[in-house]
Amino acid sequence: MEDLYSLLGVSRNASQEEIKRAYRRLAREYHPDLNRGDREAEARFKDIARAYEVLSDPQRRRRYDLYGDADISPAAERGFADFTSPFGDIFDLFFGRGRRDREWAPRRGSDLTWRLTLTLEEAFFGTERVIEVPRHRECGSCSGSGLEAGYDLDLCPACGGEGRITSTKRTAFGTFTSTSTCRRCGGRGGINTHPCPACGGEGTLFEAERIELKVPAGVDDGDRLRVPGKGEAGSGGGAPGDLYVVMEIEPHPYFERRGEDLYGRIMVSVAEAVLGTELEVELLDGKEKLKVPPGTQPGHVFVIRNKGMPMLRGGRRGDLYLELMVEIPEKPSHEEKRIFKELARLQSRNGNDRKCLVPREADGA
Question: Is the pLDDT score of 171 beyond 90?
Fold first, then answer.
């Protein structure tokens, strides 16, 4: 029989990785599914499989090196199908198809959510923030494979690389066959015997990443800002998920936001309400003058157009609504009391004719 090392085209001091790579290369070349009807290629493929069966086992390889005894099990006598295992068929060998590959197909990483608290002023003008988000990211040393550089997965000895275990039980009711994921390799079909030193074979690293955010002007409470690719790392070469930053706007001491409109209140004295006045109102982006006409009643709402919040899409702004409040002195001075008494005397009416109730406004019915 031809020397096993010569069959695979490797030297006698070749590493296990070199033997594995040589076997895969030759198996692709001589696989019967690609050489249908070629008995010479089929025979060559069986010899290559025999060589790999021995040289991939450290103990059997040592015996072969010492005594030249391949100690080959009668696999050839069991039929061609056993030689193609652990690949199953030509599609598993070349294209990675099959149940094992479906289980370990690339999977996108999960999305993450981060809550960002902003002041109303930051929501008005927009802002830039740097946040530190704890997340799993792909290990740069192994590109997410979990393998040390230069190594590949070893075929799982429990399932022969299939990733699944099929068991048959005979009962009084008949024979039952069940298939389950291989516990040894977790359905991967291979064992990582050379884990990446950086990530310990996980393929990902967990750390806090600094992410720069540009928050646009006009964001509202509950709005989400999507940051692509900054979620959890994917598996099996899958893309990472996204990061969604959810806005939380702090309450403002003077303004309440309702959509793009702002609502506030202004306070004037009794005399200012009666005689009228001009106020300077401090807004989020400057000051605005407001005229209060004489005799303006408490509760009156002034509307200042285009002085509310900016809209996310579009150049216009909402409106500003200001409700008038009249300040009533809780402890008037002696002089104030004298003036109010005189005012009351001037405004006095016949007590029997005075009515306290105020007519309701028409319902419009």
Answer: no
Dihedral of CA 62/68/74/76: which sign? positive
Residue with tokens 């150049």: 315
User: What is the token pair recorded at 60?
Assistant: 């059997």
Degrees, nearest 5: CA angle 20-24-26? 115
Coil, strand, or helix at residue 71?
coil
- CA dist 7 and 52 (Å) reads 9
290 in Cβ contact with 320 (< 8 Å):
no
Confidence of residue 85 (pLDDT cuts 50, 70, 90): very low
**Would you state the structure tokens that stand for residue 311, as one six-digit string?**
């809209």
- CA 360 to mean position of chain CA atoms: 57
Which tokens go with 73? Answer: 């099990």
Mind listing the pLDDT tens digit for each residue in 207-228? 899 999 999 999 999 999 999 9
Q: Which residue is it, tokens 């249908």?
A: 36
Record the tokens describing residue 365, joined without a space: 């019915």
Q: Is the dihedral of CA 16, 20, 26, 27 positive or negative?
A: positive
- Give the span between the Cα atoms of 55 and 40, in whole angstroms: 23
Q: Which CATH fold would you assign to the domain 4-97?
A: Helix Hairpins (1.10.287)
Right CATH for 99-144+197-251 from 2.60.260.20, 1.10.10.60, 1.10.760.10, 2.10.70.10: 2.60.260.20
